[in-house]
Automatic annotation (TrEMBL):
<protein>
    <recommendedName>
        <fullName>Ribulose-phosphate 3-epimerase</fullName>
        <ecNumber>5.1.3.1</ecNumber>
    </recommendedName>
</protein>
<comment type="pathway">
    <text>Carbohydrate degradation.</text>
</comment>
<dbReference type="InterPro" id="IPR011060">
    <property type="entry name" value="RibuloseP-bd_barrel"/>
</dbReference>
<feature type="binding site">
    <location>
        <position position="172"/>
    </location>
    <ligand>
        <name>a divalent metal cation</name>
    </ligand>
</feature>
<comment type="similarity">
    <text>Belongs to the ribulose-phosphate 3-epimerase family.</text>
</comment>
<keyword id="KW-0119">Carbohydrate metabolism</keyword>
<feature type="binding site">
    <location>
        <begin position="139"/>
        <end position="142"/>
    </location>
    <ligand>
        <name>substrate</name>
    </ligand>
</feature>
<keyword id="KW-0479">Metal-binding</keyword>
<feature type="binding site">
    <location>
        <position position="7"/>
    </location>
    <ligand>
        <name>substrate</name>
    </ligand>
</feature>
<dbReference type="InterPro" id="IPR013785">
    <property type="entry name" value="Aldolase_TIM"/>
</dbReference>
<feature type="binding site">
    <location>
        <begin position="172"/>
        <end position="174"/>
    </location>
    <ligand>
        <name>substrate</name>
    </ligand>
</feature>
<dbReference type="Pfam" id="PF00834">
    <property type="entry name" value="Ribul_P_3_epim"/>
</dbReference>
<comment type="function">
    <text>Catalyzes the reversible epimerization of D-ribulose 5-phosphate to D-xylulose 5-phosphate.</text>
</comment>
<dbReference type="InterPro" id="IPR000056">
    <property type="entry name" value="Ribul_P_3_epim-like"/>
</dbReference>
<feature type="active site" description="Proton donor">
    <location>
        <position position="172"/>
    </location>
</feature>
<feature type="binding site">
    <location>
        <position position="63"/>
    </location>
    <ligand>
        <name>a divalent metal cation</name>
    </ligand>
</feature>
<keyword id="KW-0413">Isomerase</keyword>
């Protein structure tokens, strides 16, 4: 089952509550948190996440592109996030952090930047509910999709299958109607889409269209047999 997570990084920040409602058919609302340290951009923090949670029934998927997620990630669970993603490059103790996020009641997710290989973290996979493969360099929306990440998505899907895990595999960066099928074929089943949704005339229709594209490919993908 393909899941579409519109990224509010591409929404109108002056109308966040309305923008959240415009995609209420989405599976999750993806919230990019940037601290101007881990990435060269500054977005929003805990108070906005808390306010967004009250403004929409769509669960919040918070992607923390921040330093010291070990300290800050639990606060996003307390603010109402249903899923919290930390970057392994920034985490001091990723297993402990994943367990703390889960213990507080949210799904624990770990993100990898494009240059970070998956193989060193194979043993961590059972501690996670989702793994995020970045398909652009984190920090800015609207970047072009990096095709060179497709083999990494495939290798990650193979590792998930090898261990028999019910682990979601998310991709984020340049996902659109032109790239989503390649990601689904490679093994992704959760798709973050920013400008492809919020740049559309009808964001809700864009979500439905992207989901239909991904599910059509997934139905025929070898990795998804019995998935």
């Amino acid at each position: 089952m393909a899941q579409i997570n519109p990224s509010i990084l591409s929404a109108d920040f002056a109308r966040l509550a309305e923008e959240a409602k415009a995609v209420e058919g989405a599976d999750w609302l993806h919230v990019d948190v940037m601290d101007n340290h881990f990435v060269p951009n500054l977005t929003l923090g805990v108070p906005i996440v808390e306010a967004l949670g009250k403004a929409t029934d769509t669960p919040l998927d918070c992607h923390l592109m921040i330093e010291d997620p070990d300290r800050w990630a639990p606060q996003y669970v307390e603010a109402g996030a249903g899923s919290v993603t930390f970057h392994v490059e920034a985490a001091a103790a990723p297993v402990r952090l994943a367990r703390e996020i889960r213990a507080k009641g949210a799904r624990a997710s770990m993100a990898l930047k494009p240059a970070t290989p998956i193989e060193p973290y194979e043993d961590l996979l059972p501690e996670l509910d989702m793994l995020l493969i970045m398909t652009v360099e984190p920090g800015f929306g609207g970047q072009a999709f990096l095709d060179i990440m497709l083999p990494k998505i495939r290798r990650t899907r193979e590792l998930i299958g090898k261990h028999g895990l019910e682990l979601w595999l998310q991709v984020d960066g340049g996902v659109s109607s032109a790239t989503i099928e390649r990601c689904a074929e490679a093994g992704a089943d959760v798709f973050v889409a920013g400008s492809a949704v919020y740049g559309a005339e009808d964001p809700a229709a864009a979500v439905r269209g992207l989901r239909a594209q991904a599910e059509a490919v997934t139905a025929a993908a070898p990795w998804a047999c019995g998935h």
